Fold these 4 entries.
Entry 1:
Amino acid sequence: MTVLLDELDAGELSIRFEGEEPQALLEWALQEFGSQIAISTAFQKDGSVLIDMAYGIDPSVRVFTVDTGRLPEETLTFAETLRGRYPGLNLEILRPEREHVQRLVQLKGSDLFRESVENRLLCCNVRKVQPLTKHLDTLDAWITGLRRDQWATRTNIRKVEIDHDHGAIVKLNPLAEWTSRDVETYLRENDVPTHPLYAQGFTSIGCAPCTRATKAGEDERAGRWWWESNAPKECGMHCSIEHGGFEHELKAILGAGLADA
Ligand code: SF4
């Protein structure tokens, strides 16, 4: 069953759930969207919180992640840790199309992201955004761990949004108003497992070559694409990025029809 919401509905729901605990929105959403909603996670702390909360409400909740092919080994190990902690966890691992990755590497090399922001966005698009977009085409709603305090591009997110970058499905951000301290408190009080790289000084988790540990005082996402300046610390999964320059190469990799989709 397709559950349609418009901007007015989303705005009203955002107001209704603002100030409420994240579980209230999760309960409503899992009831409302059933198997047509899924949690998106890269196994960061926020994702662990959401999985713990949602699994407690409905153990059949759908969860998905994108294996870009460049993830650190620890991420794949951690996925298995979660399967052990949450028996029967309904975790789907999405992957980019093999031919697209082959064409990307043929055209630009495997470490193209070091050369320019355009190349980095191209790699993120092929390896992450395309498989995500394809998966979201099959859903009515998705749940993310985005928080307003993570980065400047996220300060205005609402708890319930219409995702116009992905077919106007519903996008839920139950942790929007939480701080990193709230996340830490929940993890500790509920003994939730966390990605092992956090213990090595990482404060955000992504692909191995594009993420480093952060130093005291640095922003949470400072370790992502740290060599870039004046570029958004976003990969395009959560906002369309108008940077120009990579779209024509994307078409060459995906084929014009797909790239226009
Ligand atoms: S984070 Fe780095 S390796 Fe991963 S998809 Fe983006 S550019 Fe490619």
Entry 2:
Amino acid sequence: MQETEFIWFNGKLIKWKDAKIHVLTHSLHYGGGAFEGIRVYKTKKGSVVFRLKEHIKRFFNSAESLDMKVFFSQEEIINAIKETVRVNKLKEGYIRPIIFHGYGKMGLDPTGCEVNVVIAVWPWPAYIGESAKVKTSSFIRIHPKSLKADKKICGHYVNSILGSLEAKKQGFDESLFLDYEGNVAEGPGENIFMIKDGKIKTPKLKGQILPGITRDSIIKVTKDLGYEVEEEDITLDELKTADELFFVGTAAEVTPISQLDDVFFKEGKIAERIRKKFLEIVHYEDEKYSDWLDFI
Ligand SMILES: Cc1ncc(COP(=O)(O)O)c(C=O)c1O
């Protein structure tokens, strides 16, 4: 990880090395925190944050799903993010806001625990690489009746960690989760799309997957490019008959899948077109989508 100079901690900018917490921090023990992953891109007119308002809305929704009281408004967090990017002179990279229960109370009920908000930023190039070799996980995606699976909560990511460890041990780059009904869910930090006979499909939102902001952007962009996009249940067998497959997410951006278990895929023309368009949009080379960009 490449360090930057400052971290925003409950309203104050402090040195990166001083951004420390106590070992009895509530969220460290029980996973009750909410976070976001956001990207800042360099463009010819300065740096921009991609879909900042949507990320912050989801950030607050996730925190509220755990009854966490955030003592900052969404606007204050948006401004704090821009300030943190600016003071660190970060032109392009990753933004990680997190809300967590702090020190002072143990026991599972967090009521009354202090709530902390932190924003860190650092340079972080493409997360997976040019393409991904993917393994269907033996773990299923978290059950929506055990956890609020459509929220971005720290503890949910143990599921993602298990999937990632398993995939890496077997020589793959990334895992793919099915849901409890056996349908395709998502990757540990990505949503998935398939293309078959020119039609694009992605698993529908029904509380089982994270409503990805990149997923939402890709649906809009592919429709604008003239393709049909369907959000519906997809089985693993159907996924394996696709002509093209790709993951999308803030960290992964648009990453073609070259292998799923023992089936191989090429980056086809459609996925390539979508990937190019996405990169044009985030780099402000297509002004039609400028509403999605917040200048620093
Ligand atoms: C489980 C999961 N699915 C999908 C995504 C993609 O979401 P987004 O495009 O909002 O980054 C992420 C990343 O945040 C994730 O953690």
Entry 3:
Amino acid sequence: MVFGFLKNSFNAIKSALKKTRSFFADRLSQLFSKKIDQEVLDELEELFYEADLGVKLSAKLTNKTKEYAAKHPDAKSDELIGFLRQELTNHLTSLDSTLAHGSPLVILIVGVNGNGKTSSIAKLAKYFKNEGKKVLVAGGDTFRAGAQEQLAIWAERLGVDIVSANYKSDPASVAFDAVSKAVSKHYDVLLLDTAGRLENKTHLMKELEKIRRSMQKHVESAPQETLLVMDATVGQNGVEQAKAFHQSTPLTGIILTKLDGTAKGGTAFAITEALNIPIKFISYGEQVDDFAPFDPTTFVQALLPLD
Ligand SMILES: Nc1nc2c(ncn2[C@@H]2O[C@H](COP(=O)(O)OP(=O)(O)OP(=O)(O)O)[C@@H](O)[C@H]2O)c(=O)[nH]1
Ligand SMILES: [Mg+2]
């Protein structure tokens, strides 16, 4: 059954990465079918860059490919792709994607408007519920009209408990109440939704710190996870936004959303390179099951299949 689940999620991820793959993998095979000279290496670096791997990582991978090709002058396309697959996997596995522990485990969800925070909370709630955990969600988005209702609908559909708040009330006090309930009623996991915010709005970024402090009044280590929800379709701009978030509120990981329908799946590599924090979950569709813990090997194999 576990293998069935893994196979299904691999196929789903593979299908979500279709656009990225046809852009990246197909051009890669074409380049690697030529003799690896400087011209091909320049094109390779450009391809990495266009695939949203970021300047630094693009240069690093090009250099490594150059070294490898020099040592293995007879290497065929398949071997070079195998080499690159390994390098990309190594890059992602250098960061630990496992979740922190906590009792309760408090997860603060932050990010720019519309990136998929509330739907990721629903997906996480289902994920933890499937693991047999007692889950509480909390509506820390008191800013957008309808945000509380959106979360309440999810909570009801998924059969998880919710702490709701009044429109325009203080999100820090919602956070305080939610942690208090999670402790007193022995929840395993608390997921706190927050309003969408732009990283250049200082007062909104400070609000996140206030939310964190109010959680810590109950549980000193909370939130053990602060996850930034990032829309993969935004590409490089998203990486800049993520850096700004990380500077004002320490992030422990990324949830990379909307991988379906974008050719910018390479953002996964750029973001980990730029922030040095792991991707912890990926989302690849609007359905509650279009979501999985991030597994570097699966991700790279879906991008550069073995066949
Ligand atoms: N295709 C696709 N759509 C997604 C994914 N994740 C979220 N969405 C959609 O993106 C839209 C915004 O999602 P929300 O979860 O409301 O985003 P949010 O960050 O909470 O938005 P605000 O609260 O307004 O800041 C919804 O229509 C979601 O269904 C995904 O992985 N793939
Ligand atoms: Mg929301």
Entry 4:
Amino acid sequence: MKRFDLHSLRFHDASEVWRTLPVDVAPFVFGGLDYRVPGDAVDATLTAARVGDNLTLTLELETLVAGPCQRCLVDAEQAIAARGVEYVRHGESEGDEEDEGYVTAFQVDLERWVRDLVADALPQKFLCREDCRGLCPICGADLNADPDHAHEGA
Ligand SMILES: [Zn+2]
Ligand SMILES: [Zn+2]
């Protein structure tokens, strides 16, 4: 799923409804390396709360991100969790060009929203483990496998 139509929500008497939605997450580049989420999709939970005529949308997700450690390049995984909030005013004009949010004419751009949430939730450095020793800058040997690795005079 890439988009969600808010018209399809049925509040009945509730002030809040939620849906769990499978959202596509295309493989992406981070720090010059390629990453992806398992199955190229996440289950995101969209909660819509009515406040008068307006809506508050909350999008939450938890996923693994898989890709190379940025120090030693071994395949690594990181669990991330992210949460975003959007406000939708009633009667917002269709296709409002000034709106930089994720909702246009009651259509939620889930794909873009999830992609931004995942990007924001990534750690500053994507590592196989916090104390990864990385690769030898001289010969490229894996220093995790060989902690005593050294070069003459270095
Ligand atoms: Zn590493
Ligand atoms: Zn070396």
